[in-house]
Each structure stands twice: as structure tokens, then as C-alpha cells.
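Marked as duplicate of an earlier ticket. Keeping the data here for the record.
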Amino acid sequence: MNKSENLLCTGSSLASQVHAAAVNGDKGALQRLIIGNSALKDKEDQFGRTPLMYCVLADRLDCADALLKAGADVNKTDHSQRTALHLAAQKGNYRFMKLLLTRRANWMQKDLEEMTPLHLTTRHRSPKCLALLLKFMAPGEVDTQDKNKQTALHWSAYYNNPEHVKLLIKHDSNIGIPDVEGKIPLHWAANHKDPSAVHTVRCILDAAPTESLLNWQDYEGRTPLHFAVADGNVTVVDVLTSYESCNITSYDNLFRTPLHWAALLGHAQIVHLLLERNKSGTIPSDSQGATPLHYAAQSNFAVKVTLKLNLAQGLQTMFSGTTDIYGTLHAAALSGHVSTVKLLLENNAQVDATDVMKHTPLFRACEMGHKDVIQTLIKGGARVDLVDQDGHSLLHWAALGGNADVCQILIENKINPNVQDYAGRTPLQCAAYGGYINCMAVLMENNADPNIQDKEGRTALHWSCNNGYLDAIKLLLDFAAFPNQMENNEERYTPLDYALLGERHEVIQFMLEHGALSIAAIQDIAAFKIQAVYKGYKVRKAFRDRKNLLMKHEQLRKDAAAKKREEENKRKEAEQQKGRCSPDSCRPPALTCLPSTQDEPSRQSCAPSKQPPAGNTTQGPEPRDCRGSPGGPLGRGPQKEQNVSSDLQGTNSRKPNDPVKAVMETGIQESPLLRSPEVRQLVISGVTRGKAS
């Protein structure tokens, strides 16, 4: 017994002394314990294991025999539903298996994985245990399946035990039973890196070298050849492809052939072997139109693959029969394989070829941040001013990947840092979306504007607040980003609103400390401002109205004063004209006709001159201008009439604005002063005084 077994016997995992006696091989103590208490022979420990199971584990054959003779249950199971026979088969202990089988152990008992002792015997290189078990099994029991629907033949192929395979096939094991993944034993035999696996493969193929067996596809469409290629087992590939019925260009569910797999994994020797035995002469493409060279370029194995052949011939062979001969450069650029990129460019690969998304190889390299590939492509003539189907530039993709060094390279190659895609987004917004502060710093140091809005009105600060990138927010504010920019949509959210919606508490606190406002706060402030502006507008409007009214009043006053001055000037002119006439030559007319009333303008009231001559029934002469001839009718009037006129003239001369004088000078119908009721009253009163005198 070794040291580990001594530790086992004294460990706390043993439930009783009977287990310790079984492990230590103390047959005498074991028998004494069993005789004293017969129930101890099947006593279970914390794992459900009996003393018989520990005899198997510790290889105590004599103790096991004593327990069996004492009536121990040979088919007792532990918590994993395994019997002592399972443990013996797992250990490959031929003596114990023979002892247990002679004591009628159940070889069909399944554990929790539904594995029988037959499955467990396939793990050991020696086939003795398997052969022993097969002697006790009835026909048909050899193909018992476990939880994964795998038989003992599957497990023998998996463990690469050709002798086990031969023995099982000899006992009529079915080589065409698929497991839960659709794999038959040949799949498991081919899926082995050990060159000796070729013997297991030959054992299966010798039993039934049929086309269906060679080209059997699992539930993902993979044949045994796919698995042999995947493991790089050239010997197994050689054996499988040596059969004429082997389909070398068989497609899996992704339309990839074994040649695709070999190119992807860089197995140049297998590629050469498959090309030699490809009778069709065509190079297949997968569902995306990719050839094996695309796969080789993606994994940087293009050099290895093509060097195995003649270089020009290899490229020509790989490129033949495909419609997308430039996708290889995309794959190499995406994976960052400079040597492959150089090889393809040297063989006239189109440097600006576009895929379905209008991406050139340079787009792929910028996305992944492969600086060496980017510089190689630019030196090879790649254009830096192209955009894809969404309007994204190379700088957008570099920013989305957070590749600050690539952004610097592209800016040095004259790409505008504020270029916008079809949605109005800038590279800075793309970097802010991912929180790539190094990339953001490079862009803003090269004059990227942090306040540019996309078509929805969002800025870089909106995206950083939405995703909670506090460091990016601090950087944007340091570069004068406006914290209260609103969206153009109906919600009009600000960056602070995005932080509130995402419950970014640290961001919210920081933004509030730096003057950020939510849309609700902005609306409240706007309402207050609008009210203040409206009130000011009303005050200014009232002031303008009053000012206009005062100006109108002032204008009326000025007009009245001007009119008064005009009238004064006219009066002075009239006085000057009157002053030129002598009192004798300018007598007032003997009779003055006035309108009787305002309501009867057509009637005239004629006042007779004072003391007319007797018998004179005619009216006085017509009024005439004071500038008339002195020998006229006025000159010949009675003396008394002249005196009356003189009295009137003397009276009126004392009044500068005497309306009677105006009447005497210009006539009643021509005087504008008579239009005023006041003047008319003065005229009437003057006439009345004349009558009285």
C-alpha cells in the first residue's frame, strides 16, 4: 500500500472502521467486524461507497473475496450509480473483473452518465478486460449507448485503441451508429493528432470501405476528412484520400471544404496533398464566395501555403474559379498580417477593392488598428478619402475601434477630423460612444469640434453621458464642450437628461457641478425669460404709444402756431395795404351786406347809411376797394355817413384783429376769419355799434 492509500484510510471520508479495514487490506479486522455486525458488509460512507468498492479501489482482492463470501451485495451502487464492476473496469483490473463477474455482477448496469462497464474498459490500452467482458455479453449488448448515444466502439476510436476496435467489430459492433452529434466511430478515429491513429482508421475502413462511410457527415456537415485536416494529421489525410470514393471537396454546413480548413489552419502540406488529389481541378468557394486563399490570408498562412507550391502557380490556382479575387486582401488586412498583404500587393491585388459594404482593405485595417498594415496599404496607393455605404470615413472606423495611433496617422494624411457621415456623426462622437479618451484627445488636439451636432442634435457629450464615461465627459468639458446642447427631436434631451435616464449618478453629480441643465430646467428658465421679455415689450409699446401721442399733440400745436403766424402775417399785410390809403379816399361803403344767419347763407341784410336823403328809396352803392378813385361814389357820400365811417374806422383801428375792418377791406364772402363763430360775433357786434351811432 502506498502513502496516498495510508492517508485515505485515516481520512475523514471513511464512515466506519470497516471501510478502513477494507482499504488497508486488514482481512482479520474486516472479518471480525462483519461477524460482530453483518450489516457492516454493505455499510455506505458519505459517497455511498461500500467496503467492497474500497477493496476494488485499493486493490485488496482477498478482502473483496471475504466480503463476497460473507454475502456482500455485488451490485450495490454509490451516489453516482456505479457498482464495484464499474470501478474495476475503470481501473482496468482484470482480476477483480473476473471475480465480480463470477459472482454475477451486472455488466449492463448504467451510471449517471448511462455508461456501462463495457464503455469504461475502452480507456485502457490492454484489451484483456474488454475481451473478458465480451465473453459474458449476449449478442446486441455490445452496442449499448451512453448518455451521448456513444457505443464502446465510439470510445475505442476516441482513445485510439485499434485492438479494441478490432475486438468490438469482431463481436458485430455496428460501425455506422451516429452519436448525439451525428458522428460515427470513423469521425472519432480521424479526429486524432497522433499519427498512430491511422491504424484505428484502417481497422474501421477495412471492415467496411464504403463511400457512405468515408463521406459520412455529422450534423454540421463535417466528414472524417474535415476532422483529419483540422488536426493536421497528414498520415490520416493520406489514407482517407487514397480511397477513390472519398469526396475531397465535400462541403460542411458553412460550405467549407477540407481545403478551406487546411488553408485556414496553415497546413501547407495537406493543402498540397488535397490539390494533387482533387480530380475536379476547381477550387471551391464557401457561402460568402471565399476561396481557401481567403482563409489563408486571414490567418497569415498565405505565404506558407503558396510557398509550398510554385508562387505564381499557387496564386493562379487559388484565384481560379472565384468571383471575389480581392477579398483575400480584406482578410489579410483585417487580421493584420503584413507579410500576406505585401505578398498580395506584389501579385497585383487591387488595393482599393470594395466589398458589399463598400469597405476597402484599408477600412478593415483601420477598424482593427493594424498600423503596419495601414502604412503598407497607403504606400501601396490606397486612397484615404473614401467612405462606405453609411458615409463612414476611415477616421470613423479608427475612432470606433479606439485606435488613437491610427487616428493620428490618418489625420497626418489630410483627413478632416470633423468629417461627418450620412447621419451627421463625427469621429469624435464615435470615440465618445466607446469612451476611448486617448482617441478623443488626439482628435480634439487636432481641432475636432466637440459641439458639432448630428442630424438628431446629439453631440459627443450626449454619447458619453449616455454610457456613463466620466473621464470622457471631463475631457470634453476641458475642451469647451457645451453642457446644455439640446437634441433636435421632440424630447429635446440634453446630455444631463441622458445621464438621468441611465441613472449615472457620478456623471449626474459632475454635470450639475459644471452648470448642466435638464430640458425641464431649461424650459422653466425659458418660460421666465419669455415672461420678462413680454412684460418689457408691453412697457416699451406703451411708452411708444404715449410718445407718438405726445408727438402728434406737439405737431398739432406747431401747426396751430404756424397757422396763427400765417394769419398774423396776412393781417399785417392788410394793415400795411390800408395804411397806404388816405382817410378821405378810403371810406367804408355806405351799405354793408352781411349774411343774416348761418342757416340762411343766401339772404343778405342791408344796413342803410345814416340820414339818407329824403325820397331816396334806393340801396347804397356796391362795396368797392379802398383804392378806388376819390371821385367815385364814396367820395360823394353824405358828410354824416363819412363821419360814421370815420368813427368806425377809428374804433376798429384800436383793435389789431378787428374783424369789421377785415370785412370792410376784403368783403364778407372773401374773409376766412368769418368762418370762426367768434369772429362772426365780433363782426355782428361791430355792425350793431355802427347802427347805434
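See parent ticket for discussion. Confidence is low (pLDDT under 50) at residues 1-14, 307-326, 590-656, 662-671.
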